[in-house]
Amino acid sequence: MSGKYVMIPKFDELRIQALRVLDEGGVLRVKDFLVPLAEYFGLTDDELNAMYPSGKGPIFYDRISWALSYLYLAGLIDKPQRGAYRINALGRNMLAEKTPDQINAYVEKTVQSRSPMQKSKKAEKAGASLSLQMPVSSGLTPQESLYDSFDNIRKSVFAEILNTIISKEAREFERLVVKLLQTMGYGGEIKDAGYVTKATNDGGIDGVIKEDILGFGKIYIQAKRYALNNAVSREEVQKFVGALAVAQSSKGVFITTSYFSSGAVNFVNNLNGSPTVVLMDGRKLAEYIYDFGLGMQLEQTIEIKKLDTDFWDSMEDDHKTTAK
Predict the structure, then answer these.
(1) CA distance readout (Å), 321 to 24, 188, 317, 318
(2) What gap in Å lies between CA 225 and CA 241, rounded to an integer?
(3) Poorest-confidence range of 110-119, 152-161, 276-285, 305-314?
(4) Residue 233's domain is classified under what CATH number?
(5) Fewest C-beta atoms under 10 Å: which of 136, 188, 251, 263?
């Protein structure tokens, strides 16, 4: 997984040390591995508590859980009770007799061999079979691989959104950003809360969102449909702030398909909320359009399930035989 938390060990890098912790600690739950593994790998508090960008749980905890899952599937550890793990004789023998690389290779091979097989009609005719196996480890957990794929899809759609906007008339962009803010909830249930100003003599204001029925509160919008590599300058943002002063407004949103220069960003930061100006660059614009579904169609919904541990752990384990 790339980005800010690259120092967090991948789940296959955690397996050997997790096995050692179990060898020393008896019966442990996932949370019991957090501190010893974080100390061993020298993680900071931020890395220990880091969440996935999607908000779908803590990264380190999730990777420990998957490391234990692979060790369990490989038969090196047992689950003596719900949500708890314990090293077994095979796991201890492996630690004593094998190198870390050999143990990891064994885990990968064993997990692969214990994955179910499914034959296709064509494969049956050819005498072959198709495997529904656990993926060979790339260092990412299956969920992380899914998140990365999802993020890559989002980024490709973001690029498509911006290129499509640039291909449209500038006036259409002004209408689009007004619709977007309304879709995001600004203007509430007020009829005709948002509107685009006149094409000429607009006073530096491209659109307006009324926040109340009588129009006492208004959000003013400036929209710049620029090429992706053409930055919005400080001077342009200053002109917009001047237009807000003329309109006697304290709220403004400057939206562009490109990005803002460092000078423009610093200028807005130094305003200290007087007036309040929000800068929305192309990345944020595409993200909001995508997340709020403006002009978007739902292509596919993927449903992911996991075992109900209460259901399965209520069944009695068979410690004598192996399924055939």
Answers:
(1) 28, 64, 10, 6
(2) 18
(3) 110-119
(4) 3.40.1350.10
(5) 136
Q: Residue 302 corresponds to which tokens in the numbers above?
A: 């993927």
Q: Which two tokens stand for residue 265?
A: 């960003």
| pLDDT, tens digit, 9 for 90 and up, residues 56-106 | 678 899 899 889 988 988 899 998 887 899 999 999 999 999 999 999 999
Same domain, 105 and 178: no
Both 98 and 207 in one domain: the answer is: no
Q: Give the lowest-confidence range in 136-140, 219-223, 264-268.
A: 136-140
Question: Token pair of 268, please?
Answer: 């807005």
Do the beta carbons of residue 211 and residue 197 sit within 8 Å? no
Answer whether the bond into residue 275 is a cis peptide, omega within 30°: yes
Return d(Cα 87, Cα 99) in angstroms, integer: 17
Query: Domain for residue 306, yes or no?
Result: no
Measured CA to CA in angstroms, residue 199 lies from 165, 206, 264 at distances of: 18, 8, 25
Whichever domain contains 63, its CATH number is 1.10.10
Task: Note the pLDDT tens digit of each residue in 5-59.
Answer: 568 899 899 999 999 999 998 899 999 999 999 999 999 999 998 888 766 678 8
* Residue where a domain terminates, one of 89, 115, 141: 115
Residue 248 has pLDDT above 70, yes or no: yes
Spacing of C-alpha 55 from chain mean position:
7
pLDDT recorded at residue 124 = 45
> Cα torsion for 40, 44, 50, 53, to the nearest 10°?
-110
The percent of the chain in helix, strand and coil, each rounded to the nearest 5, is 45, 15, 40
Q: What distance in Å separates the CA atoms of residue 280 and residue 286, rounded to the nearest whole number?
A: 10
3-state secondary structure of 264: helix
Integer angstrom CA distances of residue 232 from 136, 228, 254? 46, 10, 10
Q: Is 95 found in the same domain as 169? A: no
